[in-house]
Amino acid sequence: MARVFSLLLLIMLGLGLISGTNKEVQEPWTAPSWADTLYNPYNLEPLTLPQAQEVYNLKCIRCHGGQGQGYLLEHTDQEVPNFKQEWFKSQSDGAIYWKIREGKSAMPGYKSQLSDEQLWQLVEYVRDLSKPFEQQKNPFKVFGE
Question: Which superfamily does 48-140 belong to?
């Protein structure tokens, strides 16, 4: 009887039913296919990245980190992406724009808080963060922020 109980306990721990520490497996957050047809209508200007950095520092850094590394959030099962991961970098600009605009779960949508230009600036900024630090073009980049 003790062996059966021990075996059940091990199985339940392995499944995360007791500990509560295992995060639920998430479906990938996929933008609608039409979002891939969206493109940035704004020119990349010298102040695009610094202006986006200001917005990012106000709205995004708390969860996504200073270099887009993503932090594990205690209050949600939603994963926060690391912008340097290949699956993130392989998304279209339109898909990233759509996700920032619409949000999901713990990530708020910013369509009512930011202008269209600011949303596209953030796309450019996270694209810059997705590069190795020495290749980033933002003149005001800060390592390890």
Answer: Cytochrome c-like domain (1.10.760.10)
